[in-house]
Amino acid sequence: MRVGAIAIGCLFLCGVAGPLAIPQDSPTQTANPPLVLREGTHVYLKFAQEVSSKRAQDGDPVELELARDLKIGNTVVAAAGSRAIGVVVRTNEFHVRPTALQVGRTKVLLRGILTIPEIGANRINGTQAIIRQDEPDIAVVDADTEIPWPSGQPPLIPAEIKSAVGEPEIPADKIRLPNGTPIRVMLVESISSKTVKAGDFVKFRVLGAVQVDNLVVIADKAPVSATVSEAHAAGMAWHAGGLAMRMDFVTLVNQQKHGVQALTTAKGLPTEAAYNWTMGIIQSQGLLLLALPFAPLQHGQQAVIPKGSVFSVMLDGEVLLDRAEVEANQPAVESKHGNASVTVYYSKFGHTPGVMVWCGVAKVGRVNRGQKFNLSLPPGEYFFRLGTKSFPVILNAEEGGEYFLKISSSADSPGGSSGGLRVVEHDVGELESSDMHPVSLKDAPDLTKLDLGQLQADPSTKQHR
């Protein structure tokens, strides 16, 4: 009896009685992979409270909530109604900046600006702006953030994982430009609330190439189009002008156009009319009171965005580019030789009529408002300044490089200041200085009278003090 039982057991183990089968159509379950909320992911928010420009102060917290379910692939990680927070920002404009969204126990950092409905009309008419809680808007995730799986989610089978976590399948012959890719852009032409109207087109261009896999996908200086969404000229009673723009499209390296998004607003500067009238009445011993009834006829200042202004926008939606097409359209790389070119220019809006520019321990030229001059210098380190008592701006000039130094109105402080002279990005300086006039011959640099040692001398060393 015992021998028979052992024999039956042996037959079972050897497979005679049939193997212990695992159903072939039952996939093995694995632990769920981490969920990652990618930088640039759109987050639709709405206000959970009313915010009034009359009462809100800079830095005040604002309650927000998620307007739509937030998903990673097919997985909802935060349901509509989830709590988010923002802060009031009151600098030149009144708006709300989203800061974080609560996803389970994880705080997801956000960035962006939440637009204020009818802010232009409210601002121009002198009434306070009120944000109503039924106005949804878009923020974006500030950085890649790992999110825990929603509670109660069962383990996934391998076939479900890619769709659940939204893992993109990118063919080898494609290049992926992610949604929310940041792009820096520069305004090509100055615009004013006095001269533009809603619907006008505005020209921008890309500032600095965007690369993926060491390939340029958006070229430097690529055109970017925008549209004026609202414009209000300055009016009487000191009402400032205002305007807003909507970014539309950027041109990719293969000449394909793709949407970008950002909202840019501007408002005229305060007129300081109340202060000016008060001082005028005091200085005239009250005679100016006779003219006070005409004070409301004074206009406010226009909203102006000068050319060369730099903004950050982001790609609106993912795009897949043909790799071969991108490779065929790579911008040419220019080889640089010879001396470096240094252009020094003075903003038209400075207060001091003219300033003297030093390089090393030598005066190299005088420049007035709206003027520029150029220096051709051998490669090396140079110390530029606006006066003998100012801190120098150090420029490391490379062979064949092109550099721009901008003098701004802050140079009006005694002896100049480090803030009055600064190195600006090539494209910005090239554009801002393009319509400036060369200095007169008597103010132009004459480097033949100076040696390289004087130009490259560090003015902060003892022997040059």
Q: What distinguishing features does this structure have?
A:
single chain, six-stranded antiparallel β-barrel, Immunoglobulin-like, 7 helices, 3 domains, Lipocalin, 465 residues, six-stranded antiparallel barrel, globular, 38% strand, mainly beta
Protein architecture, described:
- By secondary structure, this protein is mainly β.
- It has 3 domains: 35-165, Type IV secretion system, VirB10/TraB/TrbI (Lipocalin, Beta Barrel); 174-269 and 302-328, Type IV secretion system, VirB10/TraB/TrbI (Lipocalin), CATH 2.40.128; 340-464, Immunoglobulin-like (Sandwich).
- It is 12% helix and 38% strand.
- It is built from 7 helices and 34 strands.
- It has a 6-stranded antiparallel barrel. It has a 6-stranded antiparallel barrel with strand order 14-16-19-20-21-24. Strands 33-32-26-29-34 form a 5-stranded mixed sheet, covered by helices on one side.
- A hairpin with a 2-residue loop joins strand 17 (210-212) and strand 18 (215-218).
- The protein is globular.
- The termini are far apart.
- The model is unreliable at 5-29, 117-134, 264-282, 284-299 and 411-419 (pLDDT under 50).
